[in-house]
Write a structure and sequence with these properties.
It contains 17 helices and no strands. The protein is mainly α. It has one domain.
């Protein structure tokens, strides 16, 4: 009994060790987003709305990079648990091939056709012009993310979470400082409004990339080297595609569908709803920080345990991760409710916008629980066991066959009141609960996906 209790305590300690830096990282990320909204609040509602819409492209790119990072984590965490760091580097190089290509395409589009990109979200000429200036200035950040996100995902997969958090911390704090400089024209800088937010992001990401290169040069395990993109291992490449493509397709599919929520709100529900949604999204991000941190940490830890061949311990760890997720999901909902009076007092919205925001916050106070459970299982537990296909199928059906069509039907055809449309959109997480929880209980996600004699086979061939 004591042995089991000690092992349980050790497991919670390991989860906490990984979770705390990830939560701090997510908190800082949310703080940057909130700083954007807070500072733009003094510039005007149009700037808030335009940035909220233009930022959807960054969200889609992050879905691509997150999917690639997930492929890195799925394979690298298990190979790390097995002690195969050479395989980790090869997996990193494979992911870089795709991430650099994707980020380059997004950067080129933001430079060449920013107005066209904004017209996809809104017909308002003022929002299009503001958003276009934002997209042009953030294009450099898109390019940097292609390198940064894959390398940081590799560091996290081998347990070096504190390093990636430290790098993000520097970038986030610099981003907040530069936001103030370029939005308000401090120290003689021009007042750029929404474009200043993008410029601040690009400069801070350039600095972060420079720091990543310094860390890589001093690292004794994994490095960020262009030569890794040309490393060859047919077996690992096939495994990466088998694991990462469904994960990436899952995240892209989900990200595009979630961006369609902004299209529905921007095209059919008006600027008051767009502005209110930017505040509601911000608070939802704060509410999910703890549980998403547990999901990320749990996925890394589970992958290492599975790679070490300890499948029963992995099953037990998954149960503990789920318990923590439910606890922190409830805490997240409480945070949103507790912050609601302050947010409503601060938000510079019209009376209609504040009315929308009040209801949105109430909806999000329970919505975070649905998001927490699904994210932990689909993006954490299942992927740790090498199962990314289930999440892709589940999310694609849920978002594209249910939530998005329902939103367009409610807003464009039935012309329901805005808050009814928003409520219907926020049922997406709970609709898939029965299938997600059933798949978790079946245990079909639990697999060791590493290979023995990987490089010996390559050398022989």
């Amino acid at each position: 009994m004591r042995k089991d209790q000690t092992r349980s305590n050790d497991l919670y300690a390991q989860i906490a060790r990984l979770t705390v830096p990830i939560v701090l990282q997510n908190l800082l990320s949310a703080a940057v987003n909130s700083a954007d909204v807070v500072m733009l609040n003094f510039v005007g509602q149009a700037h808030i709305s335009a940035v909220s819409l233009a930022a959807q492209y960054a969200s889609v790119l992050f879905m691509v990079l997150y999917g690639l990072g997930t492929g890195v984590t799925m394979l690298s965490a298990q190979y790390c648990g097995k002690g195969e760091l050479r395989a980790v580097e090869v997996v990193e190089g494979i992911a870089l091939r795709f991430s650099v290509l994707a980020s380059s395409l997004f950067a080129l589009a933001a430079l060449a056709a920013p107005r066209l990109m904004m017209r996809a979200f809104t017909p308002d000429p003022e929002l299009i012009e503001i958003g276009a200036s934002y997209l042009r200035n953030i294009s450099v950040a898109y390019l940097c993310w292609g390198f940064i996100e894959v390398y940081l995902a590799t560091l996290r997969s081998i347990g070096r979470v504190a390093v990636s958090t430290a790098l993000n911390t520097v970038a986030f704090l610099l981003n907040i400082l530069l936001n103030a400089v370029f939005i308000f024209g401090l120290f003689g800088a021009p007042k750029l409004g929404a474009a200043g937010v993008a410029l601040a992001t690009s400069i801070s990401r350039l600095v972060e990339l420079a720091l990543v290169l310094v860390v890589s040069a001093r690292s004794k395990d994994v490095k960020l080297k262009p030569s890794l993109m040309f490393a060859r291992s047919p077996l690992l490449f096939r495994d990466f595609l088998h694991m990462a493509l469904p994960a990436m397709a899952n995240d892209i599919s989900w990200g595009l569908a979630f961006s369609m929520y902004s299209v529905i709100i921007g095209q059919f529900l008006g600027t008051d709803m767009v502005a209110a949604n930017s505040f509601a999204s911000l608070m939802r991000n704060f509410g999910t920080i703890l549980c998403f941190g547990v999901a990320s940490a749990g996925g890394i830890l589970l992958g290492q345990i599975i790679g070490n061949g300890q499948l029963e311990q992995a099953r037990d760890a998954a149960r503990k991760v789920m318990k923590l997720t439910v606890l922190f999901g409830a805490i997240g909902g409480g945070i949103i409710l507790a912050a609601m009076p302050l947010v409503l007092r601060f938000a510079d919205l019209t009376e209609a916008g504040k009315g929308y925001l009040r209801t949105m916050l109430l909806i999000n106070s329970y919505y975070v629980m649905g998001a927490a459970v699904n994210t932990t299982l689909i993006a954490g537990v299942f992927r740790a066991g090498g199962d990314s296909r289930f999440g892709f199928i589940c999310d694609t059906i849920d978002m594209w066959c249910y939530a998005v069509p329902l939103g367009f039907l409610a807003a464009a055809v039935l012309k329901l009141p805005p808050m009814w449309v928003y409520f219907l959109l926020c049922t997406d997480e709970f609709v898939k609960w029965p299938w997600v929880i059933s798949h978790y209980r079946s245990g079909k996600w639990l697999r060791n996906i590493t290979r023995d004699g990987l490089f010996e086979e390559k050398a022989g061939g």
